[in-house]
């Protein structure tokens, strides 16, 4: 199967070479890789140019989204600009972070999933991060059927059906909810262990803590589901303040009448799906 990869990168000189080397080691090589240099001020661009000299699959785009390292909007803005350089002659499309090491057979396995199960719209493995003792440990705070935003792979049909990625915090939840709305399945393979070199959220701005609640409002969760989701998040993270931060962000978005990320019909489906999952876990 043929696949394209888009890698947004902002000041990733510490990790980028490891990520690109892991791409070159893939048993199934990507047809094209777009490296999006998003206003980097370190050696990121030089590393990109080095790899462009190593293989013709690599192409570079220089862009400037924002100086703040905010989750969601910055990375998707860069991804979308990189995507514009590609055609649609692919079987699946990958949004990849610049701080990962993939197993050598990662995309061969992803291709096998898409080819063998045409109803799968989004596929991926699991994140492993180093603990205090230097051991690689599973770090997957979401449900096991969730593919982390760091390495999302989309079938061409699914990506077209969901209308691409939303430029907002929560994009990697919205995409899966919309995939379900359009009848696609999410597939995670626990044998695909991806090493994440920078722990999640380490580089995020402080004001990013309110964006999760804003995203819940914009996904049309409604108050009750947003509160339940916030309580679950606080429990998993061991941070009670996550509840107050999320709900503050939720009501701030409501007060400011932030635009919704989904239509009323899609929102109704999302709430129904969320309630069904909540009830399933309680029974």
Question: Could you characterize what this model shows?
Answer:
The chain is an alpha/beta fold and 283 residues long. The chain has two domains: 194 residues, Spore Coat Polysaccharide Biosynthesis Protein SpsA, Chain A; 77 residues. It is built from ten helices and nine strands. Strands 1, 2, 3, 4, 5, 6, 7, 8 and 9 form a nine-stranded mixed β-sheet that branches. A hairpin with a 5-residue loop joins strand 6 and strand 7. The model has no long low-confidence stretch (mean pLDDT 91).
Provide a short characterization of the protein structure.
α7 (211-218) packs across α9 (241-255) and α8 (223-237) runs antiparallel to α9 (241-255).
Which SSEs are present, and which pair or pack?
Elements lengths: L2 E7 L6 H9 L7 E7 L5 H11 L3 E6 L9 H11 L8 E5 L3 E2 L4 H11 L3 E11 L5 E3 L12 E5 H6 L9 H11 L3 E12 L14 H8 L4 H15 L3 H15 L8 H19 L1
Parallel strand pairs: 1-2, 1-4, 2-3, 6-9
Antiparallel strand pairs: 4-8, 5-9, 6-7, 6-8
Helix pairs in contact: 7-9, 8-9
Family: Belongs to the glycosyltransferase 2 family.
InterPro entries: Glyco_trans_2-like, Nucleotide-diphossugar_trans
Organism: Pseudozobellia thermophila
Features:
globular; about 280 residues; Spore Coat Polysaccharide Biosynthesis Protein SpsA, Chain A; about 40% helix; 2 domains; alpha/beta
By helix and strand content, what is the structural category?
alpha/beta
What is the residue-mean pLDDT, rounded to a whole number? 91
Within CATH, the superfamily of the largest domain carries the name: Spore Coat Polysaccharide Biosynthesis Protein SpsA, Chain A
Tell me the series of helices and strands, N- to C-terminal. EHEHEHEEHEEEHHEHHHH
Report on the biggest sheet.
Answer: 9 strands, mixed
Low-confidence stretches: none
Number of domains: 2
- CATH T-level topology of the largest domain: Spore Coat Polysaccharide Biosynthesis Protein SpsA, Chain A
> Quick one: how many beta strands?
9
Note the quaternary state here. Answer: single chain
- Do you know the CATH architecture of the largest domain? Alpha-Beta Complex
Cα radius of gyration in angstroms = 18 Å
Query: What is the C-level CATH assignment of the largest domain?
Result: Alpha Beta
| Distance separating the two termini | 41 Å
Organism: Pseudozobellia thermophila
GO molecular function: glycosyltransferase activity
Keywords: Glycosyltransferase, Transferase
Family: Belongs to the glycosyltransferase 2 family.
């Amino acid at each position: 199967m043929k696949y394209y990869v888009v890698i947004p990168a902002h000041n990733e000189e510490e990790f980028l070479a490891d990520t690109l080397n892991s791409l070159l080691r893939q048993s199934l090589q990507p047809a094209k890789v777009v490296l999006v240099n998003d206003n980097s001020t370190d050696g990121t661009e030089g590393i990109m140019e080095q790899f462009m000299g190593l293989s013709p699959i690599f192409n570079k785009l220089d862009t400037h989204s924002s100086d703040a390292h905010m989750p969601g909007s910055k990375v998707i803005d860069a991804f979308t600009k990189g995507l514009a350089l590609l055609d649609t002659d692919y079987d699946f499309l990958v949004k990849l972070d610049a701080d990962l090491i993939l197993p050598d057979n990662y995309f061969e396995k992803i291709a096998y999933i898409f080819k063998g199960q045409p109803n799968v719209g989004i596929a991926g493995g699991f994140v492993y991060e180093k603990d205090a003792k230097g051991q690689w440990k599973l770090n997957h705070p979401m449900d096991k059927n969730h593919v982390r935003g760091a390495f999302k792979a989309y079938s061409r049909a699914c990506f077209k059906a969901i209308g691409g990625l939303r430029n907002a915090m929560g994009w990697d939840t919205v995409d899966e909810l919309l995939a379900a709305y359009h009848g696609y399945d999410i597939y995670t393979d626990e044998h695909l262990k991806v090493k994440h070199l920078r722990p999640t959220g380490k580089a995020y701005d402080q004001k990013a803590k309110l964006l999760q609640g804003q995203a819940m409002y914009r996904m049309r969760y409604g108050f009750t589901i947003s509160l339940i989701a916030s309580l679950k998040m606080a429990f998993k993270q061991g941070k009670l303040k996550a509840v107050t931060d999320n709900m503050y962000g939720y009501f701030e978005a409501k007060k400011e009448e932030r635009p919704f990320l989904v239509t009323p019909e899609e929102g109704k489906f999302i709430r129904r799906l969320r309630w069904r999952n909540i009830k399933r876990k309680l029974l």
